[in-house]
Design brief:
alpha/beta, Rossmann fold, four-stranded antiparallel β-sheet, 10 helices, 14 strands
Length: 348
């Protein structure tokens, strides 16, 4: 096995605001040239552990050792910032900054001249096959997937030994899944230690070398991916019989009666990716309706229409057999509520 790039021992953290102990005496080793998956249900403590490893959050107790030496987790450490990088599930870069400005924000060592910063960003993007992002673009003008790619470039600009990726494939999956897998393979080949925080077991079995399962803030198991399976991991995550069976497809039930929500020939715009044409569907009581596709091919626009953030040019939304206004206040008043795909960028 490759050398240990980062070693956490006895890490505990209690959130005073909620009274929740997110991590209880957690230990974890990350090896150079290896991808270690960290899985668990929501609230298991995965993100908290990632924040601690990145130096963003101070734990109540615990020790971190990097190849450069032991890090005092109770103090801000220049060595920690230089040797580890965190790619968050939701980007927190200030929207008023350019990508270039955000990429060097808070770095203890950085090229001072704008020309040097641009050169470093573009060269890093080229070296890692991530070219195509203009570093002078405002953060507010970037979509979620592009922002996460920009964050990856920013992290690699400073040559980290350890990368912590918190649910990254949720933003890369829209037509870029293979690019994400290829990048992970390149990072491993280059000797980087990668911690992948994820709920996607498909990713674990596709690209991870080892997997640690957390539940209620504690480590339930850690092993090589080749020594486990979907059912075992799911049982350890939830503490019950497996509920995840990827080979079984759920059959759609037949719903009768009146639809609660109907889209009748929705149309927006004229043509192209920023348009909808004759979109119709029905949602019945007791039904979960899934709509899938590429965001750039109309999925984001449909979300905007259904949530009332974009008015329709043609067609109508009907709730309980009554047409409803195509604006957010009217839809809320009618009883349609909305959980956004991007809670940071879109809000609720």
């Amino acid at each position: 096995m490759n050398k240990v790039a980062a070693s956490l021992r006895g890490v505990s953290h209690h959130w005073q605001s909620s009274g929740v102990t997110a991590c209880r005496d957690v230990s974890l080793d990350l090896h150079s040239g290896s991808l270690h998956a960290l899985v668990g249900e929501n609230g298991a403590g995965k993100t908290t552990l990632g924040l601690i490893l990145a130096g963003v959050l101070k734990p109540d107790s615990g020790i971190l050792k990097l190849s450069s030496g032991e890090v005092n987790l109770k103090e801000k450490s220049k060595g920690l910032i230089q040797n580890t990088a965190l790619i968050r599930q939701r980007n927190i870069w200030p929207e008023v900054l350019s990508v270039r400005e955000a990429a060097v924000l808070g770095r203890s060592i950085r090229p001072g001249r704008i020309k040097d910063q641009l050169s470093l960003f573009n060269q890093t993007a080229e070296d890692w096959g991530l070219a195509g992002i203009n570093p002078e673009t405002r953060v507010s003008q970037m979509d979620t997937a592009s922002l996460q790619r920009a964050e990856m470039i920013a992290a690699l600009m400073f040559n980290p030994e350890v990368l912590i990726l918190d649910e990254p494939s949720s933003a890369w999956e829209e037509g870029r899944g293979s690019e994400f897998f290829q990048l992970m393979d390149r990072l491993k080949d280059d000797g980087r230690a990668v911690l992948l925080i994820t709920h996607r077991l498909e990713d674990v079995f596709s690209i991870a070398d080892r997997v640690t399962v957390m539940r209620h803030g504690t480590v339930i198991s850690r092993r090589d991916v080749s020594d486990t399976d979907y059912s075992t991991i799911t049982r350890e995550m939830f503490g019950e019989q497996p509920i995840y069976t990827p080979s079984v497809k759920k059959q759609r039930s037949s719903f009768t009666g009146k639809a609660r929500l109907e889209a009748l020939g929705l149309g927006v715009g004229d043509s192209g990716s920023n348009a909808l044409e004759k979109v119709s569907f029905q949602l019945f009581p007791g039904e979960i309706l899934g709509i899938t596709g590429l965001r750039e091919e109309g999925l984001s626009l449909l979300e905007d229409v259904i949530s009332g953030n974009r008015r329709v040019d043609k067609g109508a939304l009907v709730l309980d057999s009554k047409p409803v206004p195509s604006n957010a206040p009217g839809l809320r008043k009618a009883g349609l509520h909305y959980v956004p795909s991007d809670k940071t960028g879109r809000g609720a």
